[in-house]
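Chapter summary example.
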Amino acid sequence: MKPHKRIETIAQYDWDVFADALLAVPTITRNRVNMIAESRAFETNGKERQFCRALKKLAASSLLLLPLVANAGYTVEEAFQEVNQQTARCLKMKNRPVDAVQDTWFDSLSSDQKRAVLFEVSKRAVDRCTLEAREKYSWALVKQAGETGDFEGIKGWIALNSSIDGKAQTIVKSLPEEEINRLSLSDDFYYPFDSMSLRDSLISQ
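The structure predicted for these 205 residues follows.
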C-alpha cells in the first residue's frame, strides 16, 4: 500500500497507530498529514481538535534536517531526497508565530471565514516554500515514466498532491481570490507560519 493510502486508511480506524505510523513515512507524506490535520481542526472541537493539533506538532517535531545533497541531479532518487529535505525545512518554519492579522479586508470576515482564509494562506505558504523542489521531482517522475513506461510514481505523486475537501475549502471558494492572494503574499504570510495557534487566538477573542 502506498504511504499516502496507508495513512488515510489508518486515520479512519486508529489514531494511536496513525501517530506511530507517521514517523515511518517520508516528510512529503507527513506534510500531507499536516495539511489534513489543519483542515480537520477547522471543523472539529474538543478532544478531536486537540488530537489534530497534537498530530500537526508530531508531523513537525519528528522532522530531521538531513544534510543537503551537493549538486543534486534529476534522477528520481535525488529529486525525491531534495523535495523531502525541503519539505522538512518548510514544515520547521511552521513554528514561526504570527500574533495578529492587521488587514481591513480580513477584519471584515466572519470567524469561520477568517479561519478558512488562514488555512488557505498557510497551505499556499508551504506550497510556495517547496515549489522548486516539487517541480524538480515532478519532472524527474515524468522523465522516468517516459523512459520506462511506468506511471505508478506519477499517479502516486498526483494523489499525494490532490486537493483536501472540506468546509474550509468551500468557504475559500466563495471569497474573492484577489484578496486571498494579496494576503498570502503579504510579509506575515509569505513564508510558513503557525496557523493553528493564530486560529486558536481568533477563537478565544
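To summarize the output: Residues 111-148 form the longest helix (38 residues).
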